[in-house]
Design brief:
CATH topology of the largest domain: outer membrane lipoprotein receptor (LolB), chain A
Shape: globular
Strand content: over 45%
Low-confidence stretches: 1-21, 277-290
Distance between the termini: 25 Å
Number of helices: 5
Number of domains: 2
CATH architecture of the largest domain: Clam
CATH class of the largest domain: Mainly Beta
Radius of gyration: 25 Å
Helix content: under 10%
Mean pLDDT: 82
Number of strands: 29
Oligomer: single chain
Structural class: mainly beta
């Protein structure tokens, strides 16, 4: 279980137009104009982002590693670090006029939770889809300096540096219980003929001491994507590195896919956080879960194996009832094989001292008579029937819950092999509870 929670907020965009540049100032004006034009289009698009995360720590077996200081980290390689854990996230992202909004992949609804509230564990970064470049290019917050013109793949490119001071910055960095705004600096490269943004890097290394961080650095590549007769500049890959003052590091790599425009038949739902339910509804929910009684026991097996090399938190998952259920009070009968729908809330590999896997699972609904009925389950025990999978042996498995993720159960598979997959048919006994 990771104890550190880090958040980096930043913002990136693109460009859209084609004019000639006579000098450096005119070229910069054209680049900024194209980026501003592209920003105005972004609220019409949604993309899926897949985030691969690694957490590295100082290897105690390497002598002298603890002698590093913040000044050393900018050039330090990861050779002296040991991979502590890795996982993957899959989310949908869109841009409103004010900020980026996130949801688990395929939910088609967004609420006002921040990304760190949705993910809850580990290092997250925001802004790569759409807001930081608004600060840099579509405002007077940044100062720019032309560096040179060079050539890449046979095409001329323009290279600039920039700086945004603390007094004008909206770049926030959060660690543990602290959130602070910080100034930052960076560089970008643009196509000298089209003025499209190609690449951008930024870093912040004058961080508030209470954050216990030395440096954050980010880089992003951009590509032009054609959708419905329009081309939009979108990030293709974003890398974020966070260096903590104790020498540990977090590294995130984000790739974007499945980008599409909202058409007339598309519908996204933007929700506020649910209000406190009335006393009457609260009392009713103590005894029923929308037609399914609270306290009902059910045993559920996974439909498919879960492979940590491809699966991600956010992915939908399905299962089936291994035994029929009959509720005598209401006459409700749920047949064996009934489908349940859920979502992965974590698939993390912990590498030391021994390899283990943490698998977060939440069942969200059950298919009853053609109707998708919401429910919430609480884990009772891993079924003994599961041992017939995985060649007759199941790794030691225990479970835990986390208060910041209600309704989610995390299973710890201990002393697993590098190629271990949670098998199809992994069976757990659950009990229905109040949502």
């Amino acid at each position: 279980m990771l104890s550190r929670i880090g958040v980096v907020s930043w913002i990136l965009f693109g460009s859209t137009l084609s004019l000639a540049a006579d000098d450096q100032a005119e070229a910069l004006r054209q680049i900024r104009q194209r980026i501003a034009d592209n920003i105005r289009q972004l609220p019409n698009y949604l993309c899926t982002e897949t985030v691969e995360r690694q957490y590295l720590q100082i290897d105690p077996s390497q002598p002298g590693e603890t002698a590093y200081t913040c000044e050393d980290f900018a050039t330090r390689s990861t050779d002296g670090l040991k991979l502590r854990s890795s996982d993957r996230l899959r989310l949908d992202v869109t841009l409103t006029s004010a900020r980026e909004m996130y949801s688990w992949v395929g939910e088609d609804r967004f609420d006002d939770r921040s990304l760190s509230e949705i993910v809850a564990q580990g290092t997250t970064s925001t802004g790569a889809f759409g807001l930081f470049l608004r600060d840099i290019f579509a405002s007077d917050h940044a100062s720019f300096e032309f560096k040179n013109q060079s050539e890449e793949n046979g095409r001329p490119v323009l290279n600039y540096t920039f700086e945004v001071p603390l007094s004008r910055s909206h770049y926030t960095v959060s660690m543990h219980m602290f959130t602070r705004i910080t100034g930052y600096a960076g560089a970008f490269t643009a196509d000298a003929q089209t003025f499209d943004l190609l690449r951008m890097e930024l870093h912040a290394d004058r961080l508030a001491p209470e954050l216990q961080m030395c440096r954050t650095q980010s880089s992003a590549n951009y590509v032009r994507v054609q959708m419905n007769g329009t081309t939009v500049l979108l990030p293709s890959e974003v890398k974020v590195r966070m260096l903590e003052s104790d020498g540990h590091e977090s590294y995130n790599r984000t790739v974007f896919s499945g980008c599409h425009q909202f058409l007339g038949e598309s519908k996204l739902i933007f929700e506020e956080k649910p209000a406190e339910e009335s006393a009457a509804n609260s009392e009713a929910n103590k005894t029923k879960t929308k037609g399914i009684p609270v306290g009902l026991k059910m045993s559920v097996a996974l439909d498919n194996a879960v492979d940590p090399t491809t699966a991600a938190a956010g992915d939908p998952i399905s299962g089936w009832l291994t035994h029929a259920i009959k509720v005598s009070d209401s006459g409700l009968t749920i047949p064996k094989g009934t489908k349940l729908n859920g979502r992965i809330f974590g698939i993390t590999r912990i590498y030391a001292p021994e390899l283990e896997m943490q698998f977060g699972l939440k069942w969200e609904s059950i298919d009853l008579n053609g109707t998708n009925v919401p429910l919430q389950l609480k884990e009772r025990m891993v079924s003994a029937a599961t041992t017939r999978f995985n060649r007759g042996r199941l790794p030691d498995v225990d479970s835990m819950t986390r208060p910041e993720q209600p309704g989610v159960t995390f299973f710890r598979f201990q002393q697993v092999t590098k190629d271990y997959r949670i098998p199809a048919g992994f069976e757990v006994e659950w009990v229905t509870e109040r949502p």
